[in-house]
Design a protein that fits this description.
By secondary structure, the chain is mostly helical. Helices cover 65% and strands 4% of the residues. It is built from three helices and two strands, in the order αααββ. Strands 1-2 form a two-stranded antiparallel sheet. The protein is elongated, with a radius of gyration of 22 Å. The N and C termini lie far apart (45 Å).
């Protein structure tokens, strides 16, 4: 649902910026965007998205702190489950 809203919003922004339909059409689109933004359901979803982003950021910070203080295993280069390299402390210059 959130991806669809973001896609529609991006499409609307792109149309408004690229359209040559004149000021009247721009005002129509801008008014529709204001109505959408002020819709209580959209406001609720925006609040949920902000909350989820804050939670994810907190989790990422906690994991980064955990890995930074991980002890001797942090000095070796490993690969994460996602397949991206994870360079530990002491990997500078290699």
């Amino acid at each position: 649902m959130m991806k669809k809203l973001m896609f529609l919003g991006a499409g609307a922004v792109g149309y408004v910026l690229g359209a040559k339909a004149g000021h009247e059409r721009y005002e129509q689109i801008a008014e529709q965007a204001r109505k959408l933004r002020n819709n209580p359901m959209v406001q609720e979803k925006m609040g949920q998205a902000k909350h989820a982003a804050k939670d994810a950021a907190g989790t990422a910070v906690d994991k980064a702190k955990e890995q930074a203080g991980g002890g001797s295993s942090a000095s070796t280069n490993t690969t994460t489950p996602a397949g991206t390299p994870s360079f530990g402390v002491g990997s500078e210059g290699t």
